């Protein structure tokens, strides 16, 4: 009847908006308030009223509303659906959009879940260096650090941005037993896929006096805890993702929580893929043979069609895995594991580390990476012990938990090849 107005308001403390009700008889400038623009910053004084029979549990009956930050008509986030591509171009404004509001709330909760889990288990958080002189396992191209026009003048040798904190965190496992590093890592790969970024965060725990089985048990337990934590602490956000992004999301996550993670030997996985081709399953990469590195399509087939749940692939050929992984007794495979989950494929990679000095030195000498990593060999030379660890790409884990399909949409300011705006 023109005497009552409503404002959808969010003060940043919750995912859901708050309804502000303003009455023409109780506020000044009623007509002016009705022209407040989307995106405007306002100050509200009013009465908090419980509304148990309405859609929202409470509302604010306004007594005074003031504009404290005008928002002109060219504000990009109008009240309509915007494509993720469009929103990537306004990364400084997109945290205000529903999807990215929810993503960043879950990102915060998932970070807390990781620290809560490992701290409660007695792990120590180690800050590993961002600038380093090694590329860990040689997993990808590195970003070299330049000082002026010189690559090695400042530090006396070539250095790069870290691709992994694992080698450094192993040193602390030899002193504190159970440790983890959680921080930024960098890969200079010219990849434009939906799961690759040039800058991302990694969770890398390391456990002493442990083998591959202990490693897999820790992976399973920590993942289930983190998923549970997010569902419990972000119910509104997770319901939003389940409604607007992926309608099978919560069913899938709850299935993972309740599942026992299976174990499957790499050799048996190859046999399953060979049988699949005989049955008419079409793979883009159909040249299946022992010794190959499994592709995402192979991993998804195994976890979605064969196991129908999470599965560890274990005992990979030594030639396709990193130098630090423990050589098995067959001399052909290493004590490594990759956790495969439905819709994603590989989510976690881990291994038991090679603790035997002579075997590790022989592998490193053969690869030619001993120089500069003598300190890493010292960990085996001076009172070493069996130990294991794994790495989880934090941003990929966030994609999995939210159902978001592109890594560019779960990072605040994504760094990918081609351009950098912010």
Could you characterize the architecture of this molecule?
The structure is a single chain. By secondary structure, this protein is α+β, with helices and mostly antiparallel strands. It contains 12 helices and 14 strands. The protein has helices at residues 30-33, 84-88, 98-120, 166-176, 212-233, 235-244, 249-258, 266-278, 296-306, 357-367, 374-381, 394-402, and strands spanning 4-9, 18-23, 41-50, 58-69, 124-125, 131-132, 160-161, 178-186, 199-208, 262-265, 311-317, 333-341, 345-352, 387-393. The strands form 3 sheets. The protein has an 8-stranded mixed sheet, sandwiched between helices. A hairpin with a 3-residue loop joins strand 12 (333-341) and strand 13 (345-352). Helix 3 packs across helix 6 and helix 5 crosses helix 7. It is elongated, with a radius of gyration of 26 Å. The protein starts with a strand and ends in a 20-residue tail after the last helix. 32% of the residues are buried. The mean pLDDT is 94.
Descriptors:
422 residues, alpha+beta, 12 helices
**Oligomer class:** single chain
Mean pLDDT: 94
Beta-strand content estimate? 15-25%
SSE pattern, N- to C-terminal: EEHEEHHEEEHEEHHHEHHEEEHHEH
Helical residues, percent: 25-40%
Q: Shape, please?
A: elongated
Strand order of the largest sheet: 5-8-9-14-13-12-11-10
Mind telling me the C-alpha Rg? 26 Å
Q: What is the tally of helical segments?
A: 12
- Biggest beta-sheet profile: 8 strands, mixed
Query: How many DSSP-defined strands?
Result: 14
Distance between the termini: 47 Å
**Unreliable spans:** none
User: Structural class given helices, strands, pairing?
Assistant: alpha+beta
């Amino acid at each position: 009847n023109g005497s009552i107005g409503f404002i959808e308001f969010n003060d940043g403390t919750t995912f859901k908006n708050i309804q502000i009700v303003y009455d023409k008889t109780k506020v000044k400038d009623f007509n002016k308030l009705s022209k407040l623009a989307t995106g405007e910053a306002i100050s509200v004084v009013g009465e908090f009223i419980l509304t148990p029979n309405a859609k929202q549990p409470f509302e604010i009956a306004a007594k005074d509303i003031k504009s404290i930050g005008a928002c002109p008509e060219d504000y990009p986030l109008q009240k309509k659906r915007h494509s993720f591509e469009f929103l990537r171009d306004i990364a400084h404004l997109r945290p205000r959009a529903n999807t990215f509001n929810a993503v960043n709330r879950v990102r915060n909760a998932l970070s807390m879940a990781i620290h809560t889990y490992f701290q409660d288990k007695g792990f120590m958080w180690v800050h590993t260096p961002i600038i380093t002189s090694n590329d860990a396992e040689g997993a990808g191209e590195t970003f070299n650090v330049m000082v002026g026009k010189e690559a090695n003048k400042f530090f006396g040798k070539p250095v790069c941005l870290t691709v992994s904190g694992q080698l450094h965190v192993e040193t602390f496992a030899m002193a504190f037993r159970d440790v983890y590093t959680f921080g930024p890592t960098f890969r200079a790969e010219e990849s434009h896929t939906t799961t690759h970024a040039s800058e991302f965060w990694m969770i890398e725990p390391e456990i002493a006096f442990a083998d591959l089985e202990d490693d897999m048990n820790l992976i399973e337990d920590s993942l289930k805890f983190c998923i549970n934590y997010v569902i419990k602490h972000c119910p509104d956000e997770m319901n939003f993702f389940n409604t607007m992004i992926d309608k099978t999301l919560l069913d899938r996550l709850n299935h993972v929580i309740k599942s026992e993670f299976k174990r499957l030997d790499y050799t048996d996985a190859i046999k399953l893929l060979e049988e699949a081709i005989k049955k008419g399953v079409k793979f883009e990469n159909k040249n299946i043979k022992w010794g190959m590195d499994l592709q995402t399509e192979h991993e998804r087939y195994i976890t979605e069609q064969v196991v129908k749940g999470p599965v560890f692939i274990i005992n990979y050929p030594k030639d396709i895995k990193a130098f630090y992984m423990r050589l098995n007794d067959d001399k052909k495979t290493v004590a490594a594991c990759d956790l495969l989950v439905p819709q994603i494929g590989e989510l976690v990679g881990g291994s038991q580390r090679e603790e035997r000095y002579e075997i590790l030195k022989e592998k490193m000498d053969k690869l030619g990476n001993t120089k500069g990593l003598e300190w890493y060999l010292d960990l085996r030379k001076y009172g070493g012990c069996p130990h294991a660890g794994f790495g989880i790409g934090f941003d990929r884990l966030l994609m999995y938990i939210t159902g978001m399909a592109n890594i560019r949409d779960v990072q605040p300011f994504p760094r990918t090849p081609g351009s950098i705006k912010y």
